Amino acid sequence: IALVACQEKKVKENIQFPSTDLAVENIIPKPFKTIATNSAFGLDERTAIFTSQNSNGFPEVGQFLSEKIKEKINISIPVNASISETVERIIYINQSDSLDLTTKESYQLYITKDSVIINSKTAEGAFRGIQTLRQIIPETSNDTLTDHKMWLIPTGKIWDHPNYVYRGAMLDVARHFFSVKDVKKYLDVLAYYKINILHLHLSDDQGWRIEIKSLPKLTEVGGKTEVGGGEGGFYTQDDYKELVNYAAQRHITIVPEIDMPGHTNAASVSYPFLNGNGKQVKPYTGTRVGFSTFDARKDTIYAFLDDVIREISDITPGPYFHIGGDESHVTKKKDYILFVDKVEKIVQKYGKKMIGWDEIVQADIDTTTIAQHWSNQSNALTAVRKGSKVILSPAKKAYLDMQYDTLSKFGLHWAAYIPVDTAYQWSPGKYLKGIQSKDILGIEAPLWSETISNIEELEYLAFPRIIGYAELGWTTEENRDWEDYKVRLGNQTPYLEMMDVKYYPSPKIDWK
Ligand code: TNX
């Protein structure tokens, strides 16, 4: 209705727009299909946003777009306000059941001189679509076409959908703690590149980072340490809910991880009955792995874990619960198997799907359980043979804590040095022999935090590589090309600078 009303008013002035090319815009991830029509939509203060109003979440997507336009070019665009005399062009965010929209994240973006239309089945799809739109709004206005400022958006059509449903980043807040504010900043930028999962590694040998109300010592004791002897920290359940909500507004799902039965020193320091390595437990602030374990044969362990998993699941709307399961070097194999099988039942009892690092496939895992591949190829194959899906996080390609090269200020290099081109130039669907795209839920880039302790250091390792992983998760292999990507990446500078992201200025990229 708004669209018709607007078109009936018809723009009086017939502006001659300069020629544009939607197909060469710096969009990341690269959309599935683009057709350029070489004119422009003049975004200005006479533009209004309208959204479907009877469907969940669409008005909020419109509001989000309006806020981001304000932040980028400082104009105020009304959302679902009544059509006024001054409105000449509209952006319409429309719920559609068109069969061309094949997934809930699919969207179509139709840009003409008079209107921008985003069609999607769900608010999630609309949200992905407005990220594309944000990316093609220029930083600078054209001040000569009319008597007021106009930001020229190239016209054309984009049809887009993700290649993988799970496009994740992981942040280790256990080795070093990162504040709610830091995580929100990370979420803002992840959302811009259509990442839809943030996995939080909430516990490890060096710290326990989430309040469990029935087990207060976990944070009173286990929350107070971190690598290097700093003060640690933890999220109260309210902090965690705040993060979950902030992520949900960006259509990002939080995946909580409690790492076990290894990587549990901080929990055992808090409640010594948990310890199964036969030694006296004391706080640990080094960076070794593989020395701690829960005592898998004690029933009290499972009562403890029932409390932990229930409390976290209760405040986690997303479908997943990650149980870690990596590097349990001092857990006997039969205890490890017993443990994973029991914990899987608890996770399922609280309505979640279990994810674990690839070692969990040694247990009798359910087909709904997901294995996260990080180093061992045969574990990934076993997962698929058992009917499970796999998340790809190969350390050699996708670990954000690996150094770029020998000059890198932070990071490790036990798996590889990962320069920006190496990070981008691999194909998830072909990476592991015997594992096909249909077995792959998606990819995730983990950022372990042994060597980083603040947001600048986080950003140095994460950016720009995470932007490439966003494209590897979303864009089909046929649409990916390093030479093309590297130009688009170099053109992210205005956005990254506006967001104050302290990215690593890789010499392989021509930064604009
Ligand atoms: C291995 S990857 C680990 C982590 C370390 C990381 C450092 C994995 C499942 N476990 O505990 O932080 O290497 O790169």
From TrEMBL:
Reaction equations catalysed: Hydrolysis of terminal non-reducing N-acetyl-D-hexosamine residues in N-acetyl-beta-D-hexosaminides
CDD domains, alphabetized: GH20_SpHex_like (cd06568)
Keyword Hydrolase among record annotations: yes
Residue ranges of every copy of the Glycoside hydrolase family 20 catalytic domain listed in the record: 164-476
Keyword set, alphabetical order: Glycosidase, Hydrolase
EC number: 3.2.1.52
Catalytic class of the enzyme: hydrolase
Residue span, Beta-hexosaminidase bacterial type N-terminal domain: 26-160
InterPro entries xref list: Beta_hexosaminidase_sua/sub (IPR025705), GH (IPR017853), Glyco_hydro_20_cat (IPR015883), Hex-like_dom2 (IPR029018), HEX_bac_N (IPR015882)
PANTHER family: BETA-HEXOSAMINIDASE (PTHR22600), BETA-N-ACETYLHEXOSAMINIDASE (PTHR22600:SF57)
Family (UniProt): Belongs to the glycosyl hydrolase 20 family.
Protein name, per record: beta-N-acetylhexosaminidase
The species this protein was found in: Sediminicola luteus
